[in-house]
Amino acid sequence: MLRTRAEGDPGRLAWQHSGVVVTVPSWLLASRQPEQGAGTLVGSLGGGLQQSVVLAGHLHVCVPREGRLATRGSQSRAPHQHPLCPQCPVLGSSHLWVPVSGTPPPSPWPAAPLVPCGLHLLSAPETDPSCFPAGDGQSRESSPIINNGDMERESFFEGKNMALFEEEMDSNPMVSSLLNKLANYTNLSQGVVEHEEAEESRRREVKNPGMGTFIGVYLPCLQNILGVILFLRLTWIVGVAGVLESFLIVFMCCTCTMLTAISMSAIATNGVVPAGGSYYMISRSLGPEFGGAVGLCFYLGTTFAGAMYILGTIEIFLTYISPGASIIHAQSPDGEAVAMLHNMRVYGTCTLVLMAMVVFVGVKYVNKLALVFLACVVLSILAIYAGVIKTAFDPPDILLTTNNGTVTTALWGLFCNNSMPSAICDEYFAQNNLTEIQGIPGVASGVFLGVFVEKQGTPSVPVPEESRSSKLPYVLTDIMTYFTMLVGIYFPSVTGIMAGSNRSGDLRDAQKSIPTGTILAIVTTSFIYLSCIMLFGACIEGVILRDKFGEALQGNLVIGMLAWPSPWVIVIGSFFSTCGAGLQSLTGAPRLLQAIARDGIVPFLQVFGHGKANGEPTWALLLTALICEIGILIASLDSVAPILSMFFLMCYMFVNLACAVQTLLRTPNWRPRFRYYHWTLSFLGMSLCLALMFICSWYYALFAMLIAGCIYKYIEYRGAEKEWGDGIRGLSLNAARYALLRPQVLVMLNLDSEQCVKHPRLLSFTTQLKAGKGLTIVGSVLEGTYLDKHAEAQQAEENIRSLMGIEKTKGFCQLVVSSNLRDGMSHLIQSAGLGGMKHNTVLMAWPESWKEEDNPFSWKNFVDTVRDTTAAQQALLVAKNVDLFPQNQERFSDGHIDVWWIVHDGGLLMLLPFLLRQHKVWRKCRMRIFTVAQVDDNSIQMKKDLQTFLYHLRISAEVEVVEMVENDISAFTYEKTLVMEQRSQMLKQMQLSKTEREREAQLIHDRNTASHSVVAARTRAPPTPDKVQMTWTKEKLIAEKLKNKDANMSGFKDLFSLKPNQSNVRRMHTAVKLNGVVLNKSQDAQLVLLNMPGPPKNRQGDENYMEFLEVLTEGLNRVLLVRGSGREVITIYS
């Protein structure tokens, strides 16, 4: 192993081993001067190179957990958060994985796989020992890993204000280190990355999502909503149904999508919207069963939408652009419709193959053309409005025939064999009068009243179809129309409202952009549709409107003849817009199927989760094309549209259902920020969607619901267990799923000698916290045997049930008779509840009498209960001064609920005030959140990060960052600690056997000496044997008594001569200082919530732990100490 200087940088050091040079950057040299050389690096890396290893191009070194690099003489900072080695259990310091690079890593440290540090790779068979740098193999004084005793742990927390929470820091991060990561969370996942974009990204800096409301949501929604129905069928619907019924159809459909958009806005503002878009929002709210069923309906709807757009493209091409391009020709006039369908199938299949190839080659080409297609739509609509304005003073010269006498005109030559009145004419022409009028008389002509209502049919003489000649200018109806069928044909023109949410991963602020952009797009398109209906009825004659394919206009598009400056503007614009919409559908549907497949909720679809190396959904695209081909083989736009309507209506119905269910259940994770949302709107939207489904086609509706039901039962049968939100299961007493946490509370009540509840207000608080939702178990323990205490147990249970009725606490009562309180409480924590109906939170009162002489060891039950809840992975709530808590009849008209967030333990601390404020007692209280900044923390940035985090959590609260300056420990703290330790040791002395008292005194003396001596810290007292074998005689007994008497006196003398333990002093310093800060800010608060420090791992400090908590909460009226299990989740997701 050779150690040399790196060329070009005197602050860098390189190792050369087996021809490979590994370079260490300057920032790892712990700010030492470069001229100090290689020996400095040995010290700066924490006691020698034997604690580092070069492996796979990375240097693994031992450094403390908060980014300090330990040196022999000092501590230097590397201001970065490092990933920890998962195999280092040492408290206070951890091995870290440090990549070798020329510059310091960014903050926060980028995500990377954690590799065990060099110390844990020593025994790995693939590790070559020769790659370890030379060293003497002896532990160094400054090594945070090798010398991992109490002194090393204490030195790490020396001067720290948060020493009381050092037990928590092993598993839970401090708030200051957590906020930056949470506030800067991005919803952009790796997802599907184009190969070309991936190549470019290697050459440029990665940019965060930056699309705003207009570009990211409004324009995509506009493009997807305005489509083929507007150009090809809206004039025909107005002509057939009349202006009034057409207005009603459009208004119902637009109302349906607006209500759905409001529900979508509520979902979008209920947390960070994941990059998966609409499917993820729906599935994570409803659970896997409904999520899978609705997701597949959404997928099928998008796929059939692609088929509809392709059919629209081919219809425009063959009917209006190039009628002569037909491949299949009719042999007779009756076969023209069939021949047209065959042409649609042939051209549609070819177009589908071509579009699928474009999507397969690269989506980026589709995205680049999206703006071009959108421009075509906008120009076409502008041309329509311009044409309407032009008709007011210069209507187009289009003549129409109706109601004329039998005189020789130009029409005579069309229907008769000569110009003489005796000529043989067409039978229909001979029996009906015809005249020539203007087909598009203009907006000021007054034709509006003629088409205001549905034309029920003009009296005429029926003529058999076979007698008509195809050469005559008749316009025939191809299908029978009625109101419900027109609803099914029109509804696809209002779909596409989820186009913005599908791009959620690309939005700068999805929670703001999706509601605003989607609702504005729906308002815009609704105005366009409704105004077009009125303008069509005011400008165009009814028989022209009823001419679906423009046969009376020499095969021109009806809406095109109205447009200005040329009909070709509409024809070309509609052609490209429908073509672009088809491409967008074929792009979005495979990705939706891929997302469903990757979720694994439908096992037989998992094969479609795979794709090309760059993530493109190849197999999903193939299945999408096959399903799309089914729609194309149907060949009729009017037949495909109702199928498409059914799938989208079902999807929208379940979106509304999800929101209504979540609101009615008051689920804690349902906190939408959208101010205009109300559950009645969701319920109305769900009802309207269901009604429209049956209006369109009752048998299609039943079939679609059958498909969704089969998928639901299949997913349920296969047992897809996903930790998603599940509003449906919440209809019962739900055991809280982790992503839908509601505290399921076990309330531990204390009883007096009359078997009455000591603290009835604890049940009041439970009612206010639960509001009748979820599971509540009220438990208590009687000391004794069951046979002796059976009657008392029944009486106690009766009293508890009576109190639960008075306090309106809904739940169960469970009473245990045990030989001692300690075991009884442990039994309740382990066994209360049944199956899924088990508690996840324990609520109990603070033992106010723990210092009283008549019960000096009541605190032992409390501390053991804290340990039991931790072992059971349950949260713990401790109400201090519980008799001051409000009753259910009281109301706080003002005040604050203050949250002091010291350590992040899963989020329960944030959730509790939100739940309390749902109850009328606390409703008018405002929430404040305080967090503590250390000397080296940026308090201004912490406040900004905390505000951003609360915005994501949808919690409204004032934010304040309190700076705790490191200062000297006061004499008051020393004195208070000394009194605490003396009292603790005196209690121990009274309870110890006389034989053990001497040993205990010696151990106290040894520990006190060790706290001031490094050498003594490494000296461990020999362990006390579990059993002491002694043979007693009378003489030995007398001698032992005399000896114990002297030892007893000397032991108590030692107690008053010892100095306080430094670790206890620092913990007391934290409690005193933090209590002062809390009193300064929150003394007048209605309720204070605090992180509850964990009990010491060493049981010898249990009584000190109680004193720390007492000091921490001293002077506060109502305090709720919260200790989360880490399994609770208050999520920034929906």
TrEMBL record:
Membrane topology summary: Multi-pass membrane protein
Cellular component, GO, one term: synapse
GO MF, one annotated term: potassium:chloride symporter activity
Residues in SLC12A transporter C-terminal domain copies: 877-1134
Occurrences of domain Amino acid permease/ SLC12A (ranges): 217-727
Entry keywords, A to Z: Cell membrane, Chloride, Glycoprotein, Ion transport, Membrane, Phosphoprotein, Potassium, Potassium transport, Symport, Transmembrane, Transmembrane helix, Transport
Reaction it catalyzes: K(+)(in) + chloride(in) = K(+)(out) + chloride(out)
UniProt-annotated location(s): Cell membrane
Main location: membrane
Pfam entry (one): AA_permease
Family statement: Belongs to the SLC12A transporter family. K/Cl co-transporter subfamily.
Protein name stated in the entry: Solute carrier family 12 member 7
Organism from which the protein derives: Cnephaeus nilssonii
